[in-house]
Amino acid sequence: QAEDGIRDVERSRGLGDVYKRQLFLFELLVYPLSKDKHQTKDYVEMKNKKTEHVLKSVEEFSNHKYGVDVFKLESPVNASEISNNDINAFNEMGKLAGRPWVMLSAGAGKEEFKNVLELAFKAGCSGFLAGRAIWLDAFLNYPNWDIIKQQLLGPSNDYLKEIGKIADNNALAWNEHKCYGKSGSSFPFNNYEFRTQYREIN
After folding, report:
1. Please, are residues 61 and 93 in contact by the beta-carbon 8 Å criterion?
2. What element of type H or E holds 188?
3. Cα Rg of the chain (Å, integer)
């Protein structure tokens, strides 16, 4: 979480040590605090969030001391307000991450999330790990499980296939990320020490 700086970062140190024996995929989402205008405890994208807060968070947790292998990131701008002019923010986020990264949907609508993915893939994103953008519309019919099932097997499934195809055609393969060098990732390491060897991307 970032505002004028990084907040609660001390609590996050040492996370890399916990995950020494497995892949560490780190989800990073900026939340509003009680003093913020749109304070909420819901797991949703922060309204009127600032791009600099998202980027500062990514910059901090890209430090090898956290041991992050893959980032799961939110859009650096509000999904409902995104435009092609925001490509620079996505490029900067990818550069700061310095390793493979995928997008989360943070409750964005279907069309909004597709717009997010379009820019993210242009900036070197390797895919998506999304939930609500895919299934939320179906569950708005709760408790009618028949309609929910119908929606999941119909529109939700169709949408997943659609954005999956977009990813297949446009996402950067994770093992081709610049941090692995020109030859790509062959993962020649026997332990977690590789996490301290990410290369700076200029």
Report:
1. no
2. none
3. 18
Exposed/middle/buried for 189, CB within 10 Å: 0-12, 13-18, 19+? exposed
Helix-strand-coil percent breakdown of the chain, rounded to 5?
A: 50, 5, 45
Helical ranges in the chain per DSSP H: 15-18, 51-61, 87-97, 110-122, 132-139, 145-151, 157-170
Location of structure tokens 């956290």: 66
Q: Enumerate residues 6+ apart whose C-beta is below 8 A from 61.
A: 12, 26, 28, 68, 71
Residue 64 in tokens = 């090898």
Tens-place pLDDT, residues 153-168: 999 999 999 999 999 9
Q: What is the pTM of this model?
A: 0.79
CB distance 137 to 107 below 8 Å: no
DSSP SS3 for 74: coil
Give the Cα separation of 137 and 155 in Å (integer): 9
pLDDT at 29 over 80: yes
Contact 57, 96 (CB under 8 A): no
